[in-house]
Amino acid sequence: KLKPDPLIYVTAAEKLGIDPSRCVVIEDSIVGLKAAKGAGMRCIITYTASTENEDFYALGCDAKVPELGSTGVSLDMIFGPMKADGVDAAILSDVRD
């Protein structure tokens, strides 16, 4: 099945033996965002010039950045708050748009 069906993300979490609520997906589209959220996962959007005005937050994204490298995003910035404060902690609050 194709996105926005969440099957690809659900299958990945099952094969890795990870609870979906502990997963963070990096996506660049509304379709991918819907698939990640449908799987019960967090989602960071890396937008492009053609998608920067989309309202990803209204659709449930947890953070929106132009690109991970240019904002200095590290795995600790993504997963550190989740380790310290639980899976519902805000992620990338210092660098997100």
Q: What does this 3D model show about the protein?
A:
The chain has 97 residues and is an alpha/beta fold. The protein is 31% helix and 12% strand. The protein has three helices and three strands. Strand 1, helix 2 and strand 2 form a beta-alpha-beta unit. 22% of the residues are buried.
Number of strands: 3
- The chain-level structural class is alpha/beta
Radius of gyration: 13 Å
Uncertain residue segments? none
SSE order, as H and E?
HEHEEH
Number of helices: 3
Name the strands of the widest sheet in spatial order.
Answer: 1-2-3
What is the strand and helix layout of this fold?
Layout: H1 7-16, E1 24-27, H2 30-38, E2 42-46, E3 63-65, H3 75-85
Parallel strand pairs: 1-2, 2-3
Give a quick rundown of the structure.
By secondary structure, this protein is an alpha/beta fold.
List the keywords:
3-stranded parallel β-sheet; single chain; alpha/beta; 3 strands; 97 residues
